[in-house]
Amino acid sequence: MYVTTYASPLGTVTLASNGDALTGLWLEGQKYFAASSHDTWTENPDLPVFAQAQNWLDRYFAGQNPSSTDVPLAPTGSAFRHYVWDMLCAIPYGQLTTYGALASRLAERLGKKSMSSQAVGGAVGHNPISIIIPCHRVVGAGGNLTGYAGGINKKIQLLDLEGVDTSTLFIPTKGTAL
Known about the structure:
By secondary structure, the protein is an alpha/beta fold. It has helices at about 50-60, 80-90, 100-110, 115-125, 150-160; strands spanning about 1-10, 10-15, 20-25, 40-45, 95-100, 140.
């Protein structure tokens, strides 16, 4: 595993790669930061995939809408998580969806009657390539800003950057997803 860092408007971002594709992108202090052992990481800022990811982030933070397909991605996770992460990449820039809506679409895709919003939320929360796989575009029912592993304030900053009207969204006052 190779790593480097990127100075973003939200603080330091850690990028990880298997040498060919991006395997991780974590905001400083992010919950579930790099589930793998840091002992096996080698600093290598010169990998082409890191240059691609940094260019993507430069464009994103400049207010542009780069595609998640502009960077080779290889997040590690179960088939279920990959289904959810693929759905996250389909959420248009500057738009929101809910955990419930994702669960309904995934149930339909898998031929099931229903799907747990909490299960979808777990997959969203364990997204190892935040920002590029846009988990910040998912909110709870009624505009609840629950659950962003990078921190709710950073979620709001990302949504504001994308031009989302956050005035109707709210931060929960209690719960486990704060």
